[in-house]
Structures are given as C-alpha cells and as structure tokens.
Design a protein that fits this description.
single chain; 0% strand; mainly alpha
Length: 345
C-alpha cells in the first residue's frame, strides 16, 4: 500500500504541474482552428525557410504548451496552411523552449540543464529541418494532409469532419469575442480534450509507477554508471527510448528526468530524454491518427535522430566547458503540495 501511495503521489505531482499548460495549449489550439484565418497562417508559416522556422520557433516558445496540446496545435496550424516543417518546429519549441520548463529544470536539476535545453532545442529543430528537406517526399506529405483534414484522434472522432471555424468578417478580436466565435472555440476545446484525455491519464500513472518502483540500481546498471566514456555515448541513444516508454509529456517529464539523472544517465542522455517528449507511445498513436501510420513512423525516426544529435551536442559542448552539474544536487518532488511549493519559488 505504501508503494502504491508513493506512485500515486508522484503521479499527482506531475498532473498538478502540467494541467494548466494543457488548458492553455488546447485553448490556443481551439482559437487557431475556430478564429484564425487560413491566409494569416500561410503568410506567417507557409514555407520552410530559415526565417520562417525561426518565426515558428518563437511562436511555439510563446505558446507554452504541454506535448499533447502542442501536437494538437501543430496539426491545427498544418490544416490552416502552415508548412509541415514549420508546424513541427512550432511543436518542438512549444514543449522544449518554454520559460516554465527552464525554471523547473533550474530548480530541480540545476541551471546547466536550463542552458542545455535552450541550446539543444535549436539544434534539434535544425537537424529535423535538414532531415525533412532530405527525406520527406511529396506523396507522404499529401497523404498526411489528407489524413489531418479527415479526423481528430480519440472518442470525438465522429465530429472531426465538422468545420467549426467562424466565417464572419472583421478583426480577429471581433470574431473571437462574438457569440459564434465563443461557441466555436468552446466546441473545439472540448473535442481536443476528448481526443487525448485517456492517453494522458494512462501516461501519468505509468510515469508515476516507473519513478516510484524502479530501483536506482537498475538505472545505474542500465546507464553504465561508473563507465564515463560508455555512459556519454550510451546516454543520448537510450534516453529517447526511455522517453518513448515513459508516457509522460513536456514539463511533466522533468520529475522522471531527475530520477534518471540521479540513477546515472549522462547529461546528454537527460537532455535527449527531455527532447523525446514528443515521441511517447500515446503521442505516436496520435500522430498515426492525425497524419497516418507512415508519417507517424517517419516522425518517430526523424525526431529520434534529432533528439540524439541534440543530446550529443550538449553532452560534449557542456562537458568541454566544465558545466555539467553534480547529480547529487537534483531533487525529486514526491507530492502535489511539495511540487507546487517548488514551482512557486
């Protein structure tokens, strides 16, 4: 019973931290789908030029979404006419280049992880853009767009084909604050929640169980703790794999990152783990429903490579500068109240 309560406590801590980000992210997604004109999205994010990807990254960082919400918002942008690469850059920035993630990393793990996150994030976006330019075929992209326009993942799939966008003229504020605008945003908001709530709840319980029940000795053996060279090479490769199986997203994966860091994973491995929050199994399933199975596999491969490269980049850059912190300084939140106290500092 004590072990179960411990796992539930950690689950509650993670849920406490990410709920507000989910609400914000889905609200933004609903506004984009219901109110923002297609012409505006095309003008801002309609291609994959470096300046456009920089703009997409800045907008993503400003949106401050949980991974699930970021995926929904990226799909909304793509459906509205954004370039797919720009939409994915927005998605990465929305979960990995946001202020609250940097603050929590600094409080729980050290400012070096905050610096690594904001250093590795742009590296990941650049690598992903190059991979897309080299490997993404027009046929696959067309299929993904057709699937994105066809259905919303989850229990509200029957309503997915409904176009709830506001047709009226006038300014953005006028359309948003109108009766039709409010109704449309509310409908899309509820549909987006219904699409992922089951995956989200399952993911939080799994992450709490992993953090509470897997002993440190397992992690130390698995991450080659005590073998510096092997650990540095192994960490960025295996970090995203752990993330795929951990189920927890965005800011909510920081507590599990602390567990891995204290368990012996390398600095770059932790960063690669954090960057792979968009590859967890529930989100891969959402990619499949949003864009089709082939695109989901393509995103799995390219996001994994980008996360690994970013992990190696910060591992060797920060190691060379002597900026890797002491593992003993990391702190694991164990209850919603304790987590709230930490994040309120």
């Amino acid at each position: 019973m004590h072990a179960v309560l411990h796992a539930l406590s950690i689950t509650g801590s993670m849920a406490w931290e990410i709920t507000w980000a989910l609400i914000l992210g889905f609200a933004l997604s609903a506004v984009v789908q219901a109110v923002v004109r297609r012409s505006t999205i095309v003008r801002l994010l309609g291609d994959d030029r470096p300046s456009t990807l920089l703009r997409a990254s800045a907008l993503g960082a400003a949106s401050s979404s949980c991974s699930y919400a970021a995926v929904a918002l990226a799909r909304s942008l793509f459906r509205k006419g954004a370039d797919f690469t720009a939409a994915m850059a927005f998605e990465i920035a929305s979960t990995n280049l946001v202020a609250e993630l940097g603050v929590i990393l600094a409080l729980l793990m050290g400012w070096q992880f905050t610096a690594a996150e904001f250093t590795g994030g742009p590296v990941m976006i650049i690598v992903l853009a190059v991979l897309f330019r080299l490997a993404l075929r027009d046929k696959l992209l067309r299929q993904a767009r057709e699937q994105a326009d066809r259905a919303v993942a989850g229990s509200m799939e029957g309503h997915a084909a409904m176009d709830m966008s506001v047709r009226g003229q006038g300014s953005f504020a006028r359309r948003l604050l109108s009766g039709d605008g409010f109704t449309a945003v509310a409908h899309v908001f509820v549909m987006e929640w219904a699409a992922i709530v089951r995956d989200l709840v399952i993911g939080l319980f799994v992450a709490g169980a992993v953090a509470a029940w897997v002993p440190d000795s397992f992690w130390r053996s698995f991450f080659f703790d005590g073998h510096p060279v092997a650990s540095k090479l192994w960490g960025p490769l295996v970090g995203p794999m752990v993330a795929v199986l951990s189920f927890v997203c965005s800011v909510g994966n920081v507590p599990l990152a602390v567990v891995l860091w204290k368990g012996g994973i390398s600095f770059g491995g932790v960063v690669a783990f954090l960057f792979a929050d968009l590859l967890i199994l529930p989100i891969l399933n959402i990619y499949r429903r949003y864009y089709g199975a082939r695109m989901a596999l393509f995103l799995l491969g390219t996001f994994y490579v980008a996360a690994v490269v970013a992990g190696y980049a910060v591992e060797f850059a920060f190691g060379g500068l002597g900026l890797i912190p002491d593992q003993a300084d990391a702190t694991i939140p164990t209850s919603p109240a304790a987590y709230a106290e930490v994040t309120a500092l």
